[in-house]
């Protein structure tokens, strides 16, 4: 599947396209199929997110998982500071990246 | 320490106001990201993996407790409670909100700090010896010259859009603690017939094509220094390659036209520049120099130390260096606790270091290019109290220049350019060698890690260097040996095929075993490597050929 990601204009937070808006949680990502590039241009023009781009992802029972490690780090947060990630309570969250 | 005059303060305040307006226009949608990006970069604001990142300039790594406390305040109130000290003697905040940035810059401006020229193709923060003004081996304090260069290069209209970013370091001691010859221009202040002048080295740098700077002038009278540098920059600005970002640095120009031709052109240009009279009158330099006058050291401070606490004694031996003033010492605070993140300090730790500087180090701190903090002027009699306070805050790691004193760039945990993570590798190596006795047995061993070819972590200059690369979507680590950023400057050589994260830790350990088996009296790892060559190391790491 293909999903759309970018960084929130105000906070810089990593965000994912849900089909109707942006979420900080990659699990909420919608499959954008072939529409991704057009969506990215449209959202960029609306000036809500910075540099949106389409990536490959795999569907899993927990939701979409980005194909590339860089986007998995983006989705989680820094692997060396579990307390600063989106899953601070999960000590094994870092494994999700690798 | 240099203090802003009204002119400096106005410049910085005006810039804050201008940026506030630019941010407002970006947030309202009036500016697109393409329009805004160059504006934010002019104020040190990057967009990284998880957030905006703000790089704050710390001129030649020197700051006072008020400025340090401000960094702690920003870490606590606008970031996630910590800051990251970098190899360019700056500080980066990793979790900044765009809408907060004007306020942060305004707060920084109240303590004479800013983020101007910390990004972009301009002359960046001037770096220097972190022991400047304190080192027993310096011939003069290099910082007045670094400050003069800061003033010359700040908002220099001709050099705001160079072919590529430009880095200058100034030292004034034989021991090079600033990686001087790995800068675009390295300046070593030397003495000849009783007068001080500058040896000028041009064309060093790391990144994709690492090079050691070539000596271009062996003695430039300091009264000509600005004119000479202006000439150096002009030749680069005129001929540096703007068509190819990978060939745009001055090192490529000097390499392509040759050092002799570059020197010839600089000398020709120098004659024209000198006539313009840009070098300041001696009185102006004396004005600047007065800000760096030595503090009021006690003439009778005792030179003896009570070494009865063994842990303290180890810290003394490892992290404390000789001061030029009897009864005083230079103490380095390691930001490399076992398993920690090299260069990170919490807001509380930042405050504590500020307090210690205020109380025990004539209100001064330094940031080192190895991502540590220095208290430059501590009375020997106060060292124990300093150490106890550091110990309580988890800042008394006695590992300066040992294998766990690792330089690591942010890598794939924070940096949008990275191919691999750097910090976890640093942590695993530090954990593997956690035993301090073992580290001290290995002696001085500089290990440096970068998460991509840009070499922010100085891996080319590591006795042991590690470079993260992307190998078909997996993190892979290239190992290299024999680099040095010090006065014995050299570039590291790659051992062979790369490793996984754990594999590279094992390989490092095998390399240290080879060193221990071969070393001769007094040899450091890098000396043994230079003497016996790569082969024995290769064999241990990859098995017999
Ligand atoms: C996280 C944001 C960062 C970005 C986007 C970044 C970007 C870059 C780039 C593009 C280069 C190559 C420049 C060239 O060859 O022209 C570079 C080099 C370098 N950076 Fe960074 N960097 C970052 C963080 C850091 C940090 C945290 C440090 C210090 C720990 C640092 C210190 C350096 C140094 C020392 C070099 C080598 C300069 C040379 O070629 O001599 N950078 N960086
Ligand atoms: S070396 Fe590469 S990964 Fe590391 S901070 Fe520099 S640009 Fe980022």
TrEMBL record, chain A:
* Tree of life domain: Bacteria
Protein name, entry field:
DUF2849 domain-containing protein
The organism's lineage is: Bacteria, Pseudomonadati, Pseudomonadota, Alphaproteobacteria, Sphingomonadales
UniProtKB/TrEMBL annotation, chain B:
Tell whether Iron-sulfur is among the UniProt keywords.
yes
Taxonomically, the superkingdom here is Bacteria
Residue ranges occupied by any Nitrite/sulphite reductase 4Fe-4S domain in the UniProt entry: 119-270, 405-541
Originating species: Sphingomonas qomolangmaensis
User: Which InterPro entries does the annotation name?
Assistant: NiRdtase/SiRdtase_haem-b_fer, Nit/Sulf_reduc_fer-like_dom_sf, NO2/SO3_Rdtase_4Fe4S_dom, NO2/SO3_Rdtase_4Fe4S_prot, NO2/SO3_Rdtase_4Fe4S_sf
> Which segments does the entry list as coiled coil?
none
* Protein name as it appears in the record: Nitrite/sulfite reductase
Q: Where are the transmembrane segments?
A: none
One of its Pfam families is: NIR_SIR_ferr
Signal peptide segment: none
